[in-house]
Design goal:
546 residues; Ribonuclease iii, N-terminal Endonuclease Domain, Chain A; 3 domains; 30 helices; 3 strands; 56% helix; RNase_III_dom; RNase III domain-containing protein; double-stranded RNA binding; ribonuclease III activity; RNA-binding
Length: 546
């Protein structure tokens, strides 16, 4: 009985005013001066006219109009007065004081101009790409303290020669100190958390990832001229993935500089892998901008000790097709990375990169001279691509030989693997596509860095990815009606006629192969021309993506 009355929580105070509360115990109810009403008396109040409690609380919701109606009927005024007082009490609204924001006054025109003109990016006019990767503002006292403490150790670990350390002020190597400082300031370090230093490091890492891919593609295509492109890509991944990169930094004794003792325990393992990868890419970019591609190869193989013949670097075994074609005399023996890094093209050479051209375009392509494709399709393709380019040669025979090789290279660019790969594995655009994709990434990354001097890497990476989307890369190739000249076998041709979307991969590969051929024959200037004039990738971004 007591539990039932306790659950009801209906109390009649001694003053006769009916209230409803949830008391935790009987003593608490008695302390308030009331008594618990039995179960059979639920809904009624003793000593007052019979009033249903349910009606009472419904009246509280509809007050004050309903209260006045009940009062007019003659109910007890003491009960309704208390109800109306509760319902008609004004609610207190807290006034929130407005926060006063203190804004810095804008810079004057003279101060703003002085700030821009004093930026290190605008002081190096001879090297626009190098200047775009320099710090936005001059280094402060804390940055200089880091340089004084760690830079000598970094240069000692990287093994720079005396000529590099004593470079004149007008050379790119004179800016090596600033770039090395930015290379080690990853986003989890103390100095890397500052905005301008973090942006400078991210821009270096953005360029370094594509330079690393280009360096390995040029190296592996010459070292393994008969190996499949899939195996070459797997070799690159095996020596540059995030699980292996800490090993290379440890071999170079740079791990203590990347993660000082007081910061190692504060950074989780996954974040350490991200930091190591960004530092590795930034180091590659710093050496590429100041000392060139040969120094990048030296850093990779001498300092970091990368071994392409190690068991963990070898690709998975694949069923290799017999290669009946012969190799160029320069590629008959296996080349070392020192020979590839120190190679310079002769003055009267046919191509910008002669040995790399021979590694991608096999000599056996001369058997295709005079075929149907060369007669019907080659003139239209060369007219659409504005080939051949004007080059000043010492002898007209050199120009004629280059144009012949260019025609064979273009025929290889439009040769789908399904046509002759069964008998001749290298008679397709695979190798040209591989080098063309990498040089296209580097050229566009350099253009974005020079165009957007203060853009963070995360924004540049998104813009880079959108401009080179696979579903947009073959669009201009289709608009110029060059897809009609791609050579397929009969079975694949019927399949592509039924479903045009399956052809998109082939059009993208052909466009990459054209970029690769232009790079091998005429150099980077021709790749820039193709990307800006023939295949303008910057104008293909949908507006809703930006």
């Amino acid at each position: 009985m007591m539990a039932t009355m306790h659950t009801l929580g209906i109390v009649v105070p001694s003053n006769g005013c009916c209230t409803r509360r949830n008391y935790n115990s009987r003593s608490e109810a008695e302390f308030c001066g009331g008594k618990i009403v039995p179960r059979r008396a639920r809904g009624f109040v003793a000593g007052v006219e019979a009033v249903d409690l349910a009606e009472l609380f419904n009246l509280r919701r509809n007050a004050p109009e309903r209260v006045r109606e009940v009062q007019a009927v003659g109910k007890s005024s003491r009960i309704w007065a208390s109800v109306s007082e509760v319902d008609e009490a004004p609610k207190k609204i807290k006034k929130v004081e407005q926060k006063q924001l203190i804004l810095k006054p804008p810079l004057s025109d003279s101060n703003l101009a002085e700030r821009f003109l004093s930026s290190p990016q605008l002081q190096v006019k001879k090297f626009p790409l190098l200047s775009s990767c320099l710090p936005v503002v001059n280094l402060n006292r804390l940055d200089q303290e880091w340089i004084d403490e760690y830079l000598i150790e970094v240069k000692d670990a990287l093994g720079y020669s005396i000529e590099i350390l004593e470079a004149p002020e007008d050379s790119p190597a004179s800016h090596l100190d600033s770039l090395l400082f930015l290379a080690f300031q990853h986003k989890f370090s103390k100095r890397g958390r500052t905005k301008l230093v973090g942006i400078g490091h991210s821009r270096l890492a953005f360029l370094g990832q594509y330079v690393l891919e280009l360096a390995f593609s040029e190296l592996l295509l010459q070292m393994y001229p008969t190996e499949r492109v899939g195996s070459l890509r797997e070799r690159v991944f095996n020596v540059t993935n995030k699980r292996v990169l800490p090993k290379w930094l440890y071999k170079a004794s740079l791990n203590a500089i990347v993660f000082p003792a007081e910061e190692t325990e504060q950074i989780p393992k996954d974040d350490r892998q991200v930091a190591v990868r960004s530092v590795f890419w930034a180091l590659i970019a710093a050496n590429y901008l100041t000392l060139g591609m040969p120094e990048v190869y030296r850093i990779l193989f001498e300092v970091f000790g990368i071994d392409l013949e190690a068991p963990e670097a070898l690709p998975k075994p694949r069923t290799s097709l017999p290669d009946e074609d012969y190799l160029s005399p320069d590629l008959e023996r296996k080349l070392t990375w020192q020979e590839i890094a120190a190679y310079q093209a002769p003055e009267d050479s046919l191509f910008s990169s002669p040995r790399l051209f021979r590694a991608c375009v096999p000599p056996g392509m001369h058997r295709f001279r005079g075929n149907e494709w060369e007669i019907l399709s080659l003139p239209k393709v060369m007219e659409a691509l504005e080939y051949p380019r004007p080059v000043q040669d010492s002898q007209p025979e050199i120009t004629e030989a280059r144009n012949i090789e260019l025609g064979l290279g273009l025929q290889l660019c439009f040769l789908h693997p399904c046509k002759f790969k069964g008998d001749h594995p290298r008679f397709c655009y695979d190798r040209l596509e591989y080098i063309g994709q990498k040089i296209q990434d580097v050229i566009l990354a350099e253009q974005l860095l020079m165009k957007h001097l203060d853009g963070p890497a995360i924004w540049l990476e998104r813009k880079h990815r959108l401009q080179l989307m696979n579903r947009l890369c073959g669009r201009t190739l289709r608009e110029k009606k060059l897809t009609w000249h791609i050579a397929y076998d009969e079975e694949r041709k019927e399949l592509f006629e039924k479903n045009r979307r399956l052809r998109n991969f082939a059009t993208t590969s052909v466009q990459h192969a054209i970029h690769g051929l232009g790079y091998l024959v005429y150099g980077r200037s021709d790749v820039r021309r193709l990307m800006s004039k023939i295949f303008p990738v910057e104008h293909l971004i949908p507006r809703n993506f930006l």
